[in-house]
Amino acid sequence: MHRPAQRKRQLRSRLLVCAAAVPAILVAGCSSDSGSDSGSDGAKKDSGAKASASAKAGDKAPTVEKAAYAKLPEPCEVLSKKTLDELVPKAKDKSGKAGTSSDTALRGSCSWDSLDNNGVDGSQFRWLRVSLMRFESDPSLGSGAKRAQESYAKQVADARATKDAKGVKAEPVQGVGQQATLVRYDLKKDKDTFKQQTFVTRVENAVITVDFNGAGLAGDKSPDAGKLGKDAQKAAKEAAEAVVAANEGDGGKGGGKASSDPSEKPKSDEPKSDDGKSGDGKADDSETTAKKKSSGKA
């Protein structure tokens, strides 16, 4: 009588045990699947990271040609005494007046003025300035030579665009640096006409600009523009040779110590364009200085 009831109880116990075991199996199965997927994603990420790192390692850093010249000579020392005696014979101070510059390793200038006062017979005035600029190679800006080419073109364009200039002529010149151009024009102030000569030349990564003007004041005759142009060219060639010489003895080109600041635009002594270019001492200041000196000696 009791056996059927006992069998039912045993069967019920077995069912309960099996039911309890099923969730554990399911949980174990889910846990195993989840671990497998996570490992796959991690492997993919690691593979992508390695590929990216490999691509970056394979990229070459941008390179640029080294600048030929690493320093500039003193601007007031680039012209010989003989040349100064010819171009500015009556200059009181042949040592010149140095221009201000925020970085003399990259740019500088020097100027001289001369007044040959002949009293009632008039006076001959001359004004000379030599400007030097050097450009360093920079991966983001280009080679020093390329940057110098751009500056050279700008200097020539600025000279040609001088405000109120009359009879502007620009002609290429051979035999001075890699590039050279002479820009000449007349600039009249009051009753006096100034014969302006701007000679621009590039030697490797350096640009040299010579501004030279002359005028006959108080009724004296105007100087010969052709003679002034040849004088400006002579000064530019001498200045270019001084740049080359300043970099010799240190392993040739590029042997000098380079400046730590690759900027090409020091704020002071920036070449001026249009109406600002000729008013920085060429005609306006030259005329004022000449008349003051002339009236003082008269």
Order of helices and strands: HHEEEHEEEEHH
Percentage of residues assigned to helices: 25-40%
How would you classify the helix and strand content by structural class?
alpha+beta
Q: Roughly how many Å apart are the termini?
A: 156 Å
Low-confidence stretches: 15-36, 252-281, 283-289, 291-298
Please give the radius of gyration in angstroms.
39 Å
Q: What's the β-strand tally?
A: 7
Calculate the mean pLDDT score and round it. Answer: 77
Can you summarize the main beta sheet?
Answer: 7 strands, antiparallel
Strand order of the largest sheet: 1-2-3-7-6-5-4
The tally of helices reads 5
Shape: globular
Strand content: 15-25%
Could you explain how this protein is built, in words?
- With 298 residues, the protein is an alpha+beta fold.
- The protein is 39% helix and 22% strand.
- It has five helices and seven strands, in the order ααβββαββββαα.
- The protein has helices at residues 3-58, 81-87, 144-160, 225-246, 284-297; strands at residues 97-98, 107-117, 123-134, 166-172, 179-189, 192-203, 206-217.
- It has a seven-stranded antiparallel β-sheet, sandwiched between helices.
- β6 and β7 (206-217) form a beta hairpin.
- The radius of gyration is 39 Å and the shape is globular.
